[in-house]
Amino acid sequence: MVNPILARSIFGLQERWLGRSTLRYAKELEWSQWESPDAIRELQRRKLRALLNHAANYTFFYRKRFQIAGFDVVADDPFDVLRSLPTLTKSEIRGSIDAMQWHDAPGGLFPHNTGGSTGEPLTFCVDRRRQAYDQAARIRTHRWFGVDIGERELYLWGSPIERDRTDRLKSFRDRLCNQKLLDAFQMSPARMDAYWNAYERFRPRCVFGYPSSIALFVRHAISQNHKHRSNALKAVFVTGEVCYPHDRKLMEEFFNVLVADCYGSRDGGFIAHECPDKKMHITAENAIVEILNGNEPQPIGTEGEIVLTHLDAFGMPFIRYRTGDTGRLLSGRCSCGRGLPLMDVVQGRVTDLLRLPDGTFKHALSVIYPIRELSGVDQFRVTQSRDYNIAIDIVRNSQGLELTHARILQRVRPVFGNGLDIKINWVNSIESTASGKYCYVVSEAANNEDGGSTVGR
Ligand SMILES: [Zn+2]
């Protein structure tokens, strides 16, 4: 553990070294959140105009798009320009990734993979400015709960980057910044015991992670008669999937702090976060949220698809990006006094935890990541039956015709070990669920009574 003031300075130096003005942006956001809704709208207008100009001047893709639409991005009201532009789909991004980029972005461009919430893999790039603004937005929302930069943060998380961190420098840097990572992809009863000990020793100010993983950890702690005694904890931050009310209640009662939900993604950015008054505020300085039904804008209060424009994604602009997520804008102001507009995310991602016969829970992402990193996969669905065996349906595109069962097994076998049967099926399409989501990890074994000491979900 490092003194928080020192950890904060180390964080600042790291951001500067990476060429990110994160702390300056965090200061800006600290002020702007208290501005009136009109002033925030004006700020959006200025930033949107700059983004549209930039996209027209520096990316082939948007120059063409604006020309076809016949806009003068300097003269017209940027909100009018925005509303008249076609929306941006994942398949368009896949086909135009190079033409969408600003190759001279200061500090370079960094590729990312994501499955979004529809299970369709997507590769895109982010620049330093976007990274810094997303990071600054996160810092601001943590401050809402009294958790500042440099204070101890416990992550129950797993992503390809974090999971592969054999890189000792990275984990050393985390330690210096008072961040501790526990692997959410490996949740056996024995490991959860070790996690509890780590939690008690570390005494974090906040816990951050997938709600399903934190709830699983809490259920295990309760089953072992562990009592939560730390008064250091200020909040539990959850993200990445839907937070069920029963899981929220469980976590709030156990930790005796608020659970705050965050809506965002690697592709969309840091979009919205709950405040201590339990309203979800849009990071309106960084993003414009539209709600569409097809191409029709929906009035405040009506559900539709969340369509995003990231105001700081200059390296690879995301303008009217269709997320596939469902939400609605809300009217009125929050009692917390912030001028940031409100929204609701009606339906988050739908995934199940997977379970091994020895009782270990695997987060859905632990199998999603290795599959979506394969090129040539358009969509997929992983189904685990009650006997723990796995079936994977895969829709291939033209680049995926050379994919073999062996190649896929090579990627997913390490996730499940050798004991399970894994079947791979090539399919032409995958039906979405009634809610319109591709429920791409489904497990009937997650609630099996045998095998483990705790029952998930
Ligand atoms: Zn509020």
Features:
disordered C terminus, binds zinc ion, single chain, 23% strand, 457 residues, Rossmann fold, 2 domains, alpha/beta, 12-stranded mixed sheet, GMP Synthetase, Chain A, domain 3
In words, what does this structure look like?
The chain is built from 14 helices and 20 strands. The relative contact order is 0.13. It has helices spanning 4-17, 22-32, 37-58, 60-69, 78-84, 90-96, 128-143, 160-163, 168-176, 189-202, 211-223, 245-255, 365-372, 405-416, and strands at 109-114, 122-127, 153-157, 179-183, 206-209, 235-238, 258-265, 269-274, 280-282, 287-293, 296-297, 304-310, 321-330, 342-347, 354-355, 361-362, 377-384, 390-396, 422-426, 441-443. Strands 4-3-5-6-7-8-9-14-13-12-10-11 form a 12-stranded mixed sheet, with helices on both faces. Strands 19-18-17-20 form a 4-stranded mixed sheet, covered by helices on one side. The chain is of the alpha/beta class and 457 residues long. It has 2 domains: 1-349, ANL, N-terminal domain (Rossmann fold, 3-Layer(aba) Sandwich), CATH 3.40.50; 354-443, GMP Synthetase, Chain A, domain 3. The chain starts with a helix and ends in a 14-residue tail after the last strand. Zinc ion binds next to loops.
